[in-house]
Amino acid sequence: MSFTRHDYTVAWICALPLELAAAKAMLENEHSRLPQPQTDHNVYTLGSVSGHNVVMASLPSGVYGTISASTVVSHMVSTYPNIRFGLMVGIGGGVPSQHADIRLGDIVISKPTATSSGVIQYDYGKTLHDGRFQRIGSLNKPPPVLLKAIAQLESDNRTGQELINQILSEVRHKSEEMQESFSRPKDDWLFQPTYNHEDGEESCSVCDQTQLVNRPERTVGPYCHYGLIASGDQVLKDAKTRDAIAQDLNILCFEMEAAGIMDELPSLVIRGICDYCDSHKNKQWQEYAAITAAAYTKVLLSVVPTYCYKNKSSESREPIWMVPFRRNPQFVGREEEITRAEGLIMQQDGPNKVAFCGLGGVGKTQIALELAYRMRNRDSECSIFWITCTSYESVEQAYMGITSKLGMTDIKPAEAKEKVKAYLSQERAGKWLLLFDNIDDMEMWSKDNANNLILTDYLPRSEQGHIIFTTRNRKIAVKLVSSHVIPITELDSATSIQMLQNSLVEKSLLNDRDTAIALLERLAFLPLAITQATAYINENSIDITDYIILLEDQEPDVIELLSEDFGDETRYKDAQNPVALTWFISFQQIQRSDQLAANYLFFMACINPRNIPQSLLPQTISTKKRIEAIGLLKAFSFVSEGGDRSLNLHRLVRLATRSWMRKSQQFSLQIMKTADRLSEAFPSSSHTNRKEQGKYINFITNIAGCLHSDGRWKKAEELGIQVLELRKQGRWKEAEELEIQVLELRKQVLGHEHPDTLTSMNNLAHTWKLLGKDQDTLALMEQCVELSYNLLGPDHPRTKSSSTTLSNWKMAAHLPSLAEASRGKRPASK
């Protein structure tokens, strides 16, 4: 009989190779492997157990823990869309107590209580101000069909035990190798919690036998225990810690993977006990513990009813979960924003579309992720789909993934969006939530673009469905959801401190709260910047003060620091994680859609970023274009507007903009343009502007502060600023010397025939005029007129202005001709 990927309904997950070997021993029939997507790197074993078609997978060798388990299961449920539930089967550490006589080789099965799902992520929570650790959140419960099955086995424990021993006997008789591997070891030693293993010894043969706990001998086994299992990302090998956590939470077993799969796939955890979570050595029990857990699982599946699965495309479906990230254990705050979104979604006759909008790096994706998990916990019948919108390709890939989840076959990529829209718009699709993450590119959503693919055309409509968008671009958000935009701002100080607390390895670094606040202020309370900073601090074992010192270094060094990449399992693998790079794609989108907005951004990045009058921006003939350009920068949260309508550029965005200008080799040119605009805004010879000069002096002096680029540009730009200052003060002789240097540098970098070189020549001619160097003035202005005529044409305003100025100066000097005046000395080069 041949099988397809739609025929497998049970996922059997193992962490270790020895656990997978025990699992394979349970197979009644092993099936041939099936083709799988290129993106799925799992290696599967397929077969049947107790009438169920089972797909088995283990974690990558040497890569264990909740994150690895989550990744394996995520791929598994995508490749095998009809999986009903998961079974996490393997070994664990037991917690013997007066209430539970747990021995090596016994089996612990996760069982929910009134307050827990059966698995507790014991290291997921927050540290309170008094030092107490508060666990937060909860994981999904196993599906009802498994809870009913374990209730059946628990009610007849003796029969279950007999069946387990029968299976163990059959496995051992298959071969001598299995007899040797899976036989029960002899010594089951439990030492007092206060007695540690002898250092350097490979076994407990030399440990003090008087420290053994006195327990009655058993004549039968293994026993099955039902209760709570603790899951975390570290191996527990300390009896005192074991007992402290176990007594607090009523734990029977500790393990490392289950917390990673419970929210990916409704699952039951089954652990054979191979040690007591203490320092003593019991490795010889691992194979036996693995086979007892596997045997129990086979017995369990014999109780679980099998179903005949039809093609699901023609009938109602079980809820689908398609989210690419595991829940972020370090997520804090944002209760107001999440509560508002939940209220809009759950509200009767409420909007079916809502958008989270805010600056890149402010945490929109993390909020959407947390909302997705909360919605699934709140409504187990709701299907949740996640669509990444960083490119057309990522959208297409996500839609193809949805069609696969829905059981649709032979669907071409060009058809997927329409098929998904049609299905979700039907009543039989049930309740669903679509999350579109990173919808920042207007071209993908606007009717005005030249591309035929307009994603708004593929949004489903249903009274049972809702759509959440996350975007940096407020204009897109308003177009899609009207007034239902939830703004996401930077964190408050208390939540930021909590984020540091959750992320730092050395919690004692937060003992100095004032220093921590000083760091957060420099990071603008931006979550992405905080995550990057803590990653750097953790990796390099430095304290907070050291990082602050790095942030106060020269600008190129700060940019390099903020460009340091760091791993983050809750962000896309191909995303620009570093703060200095995360906005580059937004810069490109702004430059494509509105060059004036890009020019404004470049201009503001070159001066003091606070309280910038709109009148100071580069001029445009259209008020409408100016309003739209500023609106676009505000839409991306790059700038904010004060009560006096002055503009403020975000501190970290300013750094990133200057970094981007450097990378695109525009920085030096933009500095020159900024200096020219400031000179134009308040010419030093105008008495009417002297009051305004005091207002604008802060912007002038800040140009020099942003000049840390390499080579001659730096010198040219610094000299340009000094020229402005000297002109303002009427120090013309000193201004002349610097203007000559600026002119020579512009000639070297830009060439003789460049508009900016022409500007420097014109400025120097005016300075010479004020110094009374008439012959030099006329000769240089003649060159200006000739160059302007060749570059700009005879009718250009600058050509006409230079020609008029030259004629006026000739008349004032009573010179018969320019040729005669220029036979003297040429313009001095120094």
TrEMBL record:
Residues 350-492 form the AAA+ ATPase domain. GO terms for biological process: nucleoside metabolic process. SMART domains: AAA (SM00382). GO terms for molecular function: ADP binding; catalytic activity. It holds the Pfam family NB-ARC. It comes from the Eukaryota. InterPro entries: AAA+_ATPase (IPR003593), NB-ARC (IPR002182), NLR-like (IPR053137), Nucleoside_phosphorylase_sf (IPR035994), P-loop_NTPase (IPR027417), TPR-like_helical_dom_sf (IPR011990). This is Purine and uridine phosphorylase. The lineage of its organism: Eukaryota, Fungi, Dikarya, Ascomycota, Pezizomycotina.
